[in-house]
Structure formats: structure tokens, C-alpha cells
Design brief:
- The chain is α/β, with parallel strands linked by helices.
- It has a domain at 11-253: Amidase signature (AS) enzymes, CATH 3.90.1300.10.
- Strands 1-3-2-4-6-5-10-11-9-7-8 form an eleven-stranded mixed sheet, sandwiched between helices.
- The longest helix has 24 residues, at 374-397.
- It is globular and about 65 Å long.
- The protein is built from 15 helices and eleven strands.
């Protein structure tokens, strides 16, 4: 057992301790693993814990540090969402379909983490194939919110958000298709960053909706978010959608003054359906941004009301195509008791996929079918273009936009599982960023009924530095990021 308590430690604070020799990576990693053993039976943030591999990597990190070869993340214990491939460690997507799948390669982001000396302590639980907003769709077990174990952590990156909030790792990597980093970050009181589409390689991310998916960090504060994104961003020739863009060191954007910045408040994001406590916290945060020197004005994004419909045509359509590969032949679960090839295929998908995944496959297959493609999929793509144009026009007038992240605080486990539409509405404020491919961040901005409230900032493509500047200034002027749940 480790005597070192790393429960609330940030990556940048850990970096200082490691560089000064006040703690070793082995001690940090042992402390994280001890915390996992202590609380994860109640939280359920991990699908797989890689204890032996992590301790070996920590020893290697300590050697690098002693040789003066360490980087910003060397020796830092991190978690990776379980839809991101890890060589030699099973990657399940929290699905029976991939329950025993062990990838023969690392995802690009995992390569970058390993190259930088980060220590991977395990894989984070998620809604099956990243389809959900509560992590109740995991085929194995639900993840619980560390602030209230009777409530959801959000989804689909509920495991990563809960792991960071509960101190089981220093930071985690999640994926965001319609809010799956930002919404759980808001509900768990941590920072969640969705980068510009194409800034971070999707190579090795198990595909849900390829034109919407993006990998990003969940961290305890904005500085850690900037450190993590700096480590994983950059061009990758193996991803055809990867941007040929040299990502900067985002920590250089962290400043406490917002003088001269123009921030828009889209009125549609404060419409009916926003809980009173969430709205009050968001308005208080907007006032704080003004106090920091930003010029804040109301604006309008009228096509926002169509984002939910657009998302639930495009995302299931792409899921229908991407999940066709799970046929019981090449890899993953295969039904052995079958009367022939077609029966085996049917039984494999019937047994391997959960209810929400099946629902989305059927929605997508219908939208792409003959006679309905033009009426649904093609029309959705046209409205998607209008939404992207609307954001582009807004960013001619504003450096960033500010909204609540989630319309509510964390809801009770089981509260929305019987009504898919109510569950889908949980991401109504985050989906537009994915549709437009723009960067967005959620950061802690208050409490309502003892539960965290998240504030969302959005900016034009590749304006991550603007988001980090605003988020950091707000964070430093408030105390919300310092709050920790008691487990």
C-alpha cells in the first residue's frame, strides 16, 4: 500500500513533485491503484485495471526522469476510455461483442501517451460503443457519480469522468461524438475538452460515427487539459481526416486577463428545459467573464433547434455502417450454435449488441434505406451545413460563445432509461459542436442541489488557444474546480 495520497493531485502539480524528486512515478502509480481498489467497487469507473503493466511503466518512467529525459506527462498515471485501442490490453467498448477482444496495436493517442512516458492504469467504462448519456448502457455495469452514488456520471465517457473526479487517475482520455466528454465532465465536476474535428487522430478509436467522433482529455483543471491536449494533438497520416496542422503548446495560452475578448451568449441555449440552478450558475459565470474584462453580448443561433434531429439521423446512419463489421467472422463475439451462415450472423448481433446499440443501428439503417435516404440522411446533411455556417458567422462577431453544458445536473440512475428521447435530450446543448466540427470545453461553474454544474465554451475551428485562455481566466477567478466529492 502507498502512503502517498494523490487523490486530488493535478498533472502539473505531480510534474513538479516528480521533477524535484519528492515522489516517484512508482509511488504515484501505486497510490492511484490503491485508490482504485478502495473506491472503484462503488464507482465502477474501470472495465480493466492494468496493475502489473502500470507498475512496470512507472519504473521505466522513473528511470527516464532520473536520466533527465522526462517530458510533461512522464510518470503520470492516466486512464483511457475503453473504446480506444491498447495493444495487449483488451478493448471492449463495454460491449459483449468485444468482451474478449485484445487489439494487436495501440491507438495513435495511446502511442503518444506511451512515447511521452505516461503510465496507463486501466480502461474506462462507457455506454456500449459510446452510445448513451449516462453510462447505464454498458454491458457490464453502470458507472456511478462520485458526488452521489445514486446518480449517473453522464456519458458516454462516464467512466473517465468519474475516475478523474474520484481520484482514481490524474487524468483520462475520452471520446466525444455528441457531448460524450463534456456532458459527463459537467455532471462530475471536472474539465472536459472536445478538440476541433481532425486535430487529434482517430486512428485506433473504435468508430461510432466517423464524421462526429473526436478524442479529448478529462482533467481536474484547465492547465492539465492544455497539457494533455498538447500531448495528443497533431497530424497522423493513418487518419484520413487528420488535419495537417502543427499543434502548439496550449499551456502558453493560459492567461488571467480577458480584456478585449468578445463572448456571445446564444439565447437558444437558455430556453425551456434548463434547470433553474443550472441557468443561475451559468448566468453567474457569464457575469464573472465580464468582470474579467470580456465584452459579453447576446446572440442567436436559430438552427440550434434542429441539431438534435440532425444528430439522430447522421450518427445512427454512420453507426449502422460502422457496426456492420461485427459479423462474428473476423473478430469479436461469434454465435457458435447456429444453423448456417445467416443464422450465425443474426444470432451474433442479437446476443452481442445491447438494446441501445440495436436501436441506433435500426434507426440508421432505416434512414439510409432506398426511398428514405433523400428524405432523412441527405436533408440532415444539408441542415448540418446550415448549422456550421451559422457558427462560422457567429465567430466573425465573437471570439467564443458561452452556454450551459448540460440542461440538468446529474440525474438518478434509472430515471431516463425507459424514455430514449428524454435521454437523448441530455446532450442537446453539446451536439451542435460535433455537427459543426468546432472545439468546445466544459468546466466546473457552480453547484446546484449539491451537484456540479458545467459551463460550456465554444470557439471557431482550431481556436483551442482562445478556449484555454477564457477557461483558465474563469477558473483562476473562482473556486469551483477545487471542490472534490467525498467518497
Amino acid at each position: 500500500m502507498s502512503s502517498f495520497d494523490a487523490t486530488g493531485l493535478t498533472a502539473h502539480a505531480a510534474r513538479g513533485l516528480l521533477d524535484r524528486g519528492e515522489v516517484s512515478s512508482y509511488e504515484l502509480t501505486r497510490a492511484a491503484l490503491d485508490r482504485i481498489h478502495e473506491v472503484d467497487g462503488r464507482v465502477g469507473a474501470f472495465v480493466t485495471v492494468t496493475e502489473a503493466e502500470a507498475l512496470e511503466a512507472a519504473r521505466a518512467a522513473d528511470r527516464r526522469i532520473s536520466d533527465g529525459e522526462g517530458g510533461p506527462l512522464t510518470g503520470i498515471p492516466v486512464q483511457v476510455k475503453d473504446n480506444i485501442c491498447t495493444r495487449g490490453v483488451r478493448t471492449t467498448c463495454s460491449s459483449r461483442m468485444l468482451e474478449s477482444y485484445v487489439p494487436p496495436y495501440d491507438a495513435a493517442v495511446v502511442e503518444r501517451l506511451r512515447r511521452g512516458g505516461a503510465v496507463i492504469v486501466g480502461k474506462g467504462n462507457l455506454d456500449e460503443f459510446a452510445m448513451g448519456s449516462s453510462t447505464e448502457n454498458s454491458a457490464f455495469f453502470p458507472t456511478r457519480n462520485p458526488w452521489d452514488l445514486s446518480r449517473v456520471p453522464g456519458g458516454s465517457s462516464g467512466g473517465p469522468a468519474a475516475a478523474v473526479a474520484s481520484g482514481e487517475c490524474v487524468f483520462s482520455l475520452g471520446s466525444d461524438t455528441g457531448g460524450s466528454i463534456r456532458q459527463p465532465a459537467a455532471l462530475c465536476g471536472v474539465v472536459g475538452f472536445k478538440p476541433t474535428y481532425g486535430l487529434v487522430s482517430r486512428y485506433g478509436l473504435v468508430a461510432f460515427a466517423s464524421s462526429l467522433d473526436q478524442i479529448g482529455p478529462l482533467t481536474r483543471d484547465v492547465t492539465d487539459s492544455a497539457m494533455a491536449l498538447s500531448a495528443i494533438a497533431g497530424h497522423d497520416r493513418r487518419d484520413s481526416t487528420s488535419l495537417e496542422y502543427e499543434a502548439p503548446d496550449y499551456t502558453r495560452a493560459l492567461r488571467e486577463d480577458l480584456t478585449g475578448l468578445r463572448i456571445g451568449v446564444p439565447v437558444e441555449y437558455f430556453a425551456a428545459g434548463i434547470e433553474q440552478g443550472v441557468g443561475e450558475a451559468a448566468h453567474a459565470a457569464i457575469g464573472a467573464l465580464e468582470d474579467l474584462g470580456a465584452r459579453v453580448e447576446e446572440t442567436s443561433l436559430p438552427h440550434t433547434e434542429h441539431a438534435l434531429a440532425v444528430y439522430y439521423i447522421i450518427a445512427p446512419s454512420e453507426a449502422s455502417a460502422n457496426l456492420a463489421r461485427y459479423d462474428g467472422v473476423k473478430y469479436g463475439y461469434s454465435a457458435r450454435e447456429a444453423g448456417g451462415m445467416w443464422d450465425a450472423l443474426d444470432r451474433t448481433r442479437q446476443d452481442g449488441f445491447g438494446p441501445e446499440v440495436k436501436r441506433r443501428i435500426m434507426l440508421g439503417t432505416y434512414a439510409l434505406s432506398a426511398g428514405y435516404y433523400d428524405a432523412y440522411y441527405l436533408k440532415a446533411q444539408r441542415v448540418r451545413t446550415l448549422i456550421a455556417r451559422e457558427f462560422r458567422a457567429a465567430f466573425e462577431d465573437f471570439d467564443a460563445l458561452v452556454t450551459p453544458t448540460s440542461p440538468s445536473v446529474a440525474f438518478e440512475l434509472g430515471e431516463k432509461t425507459a424514455d430514449p428521447v428524454q435521454m437523448y435530450l441530455s446532450d442537446i446543448l453539446t451536439m451542435p459542436a460535433n455537427i459543426a466540427g468546432i472545439p468546445a470545453v466544459s468546466l466546473p461553474a457552480g453547484m446546484s442541489d449539491g451537484l456540479p454544474v458545467g459551463l460550456q465554451l465554444l470557439a471557431a475551428p482550431l481556436r483551442e488557444e482562445t478556449l484555454f485562455r477564457i477557461a483558465y481566466a474563469y477558473e483562476q477567478a473562482t473556486e469551483w474546480h477545487r471542490l472534490r466529492p467525498e467518497l
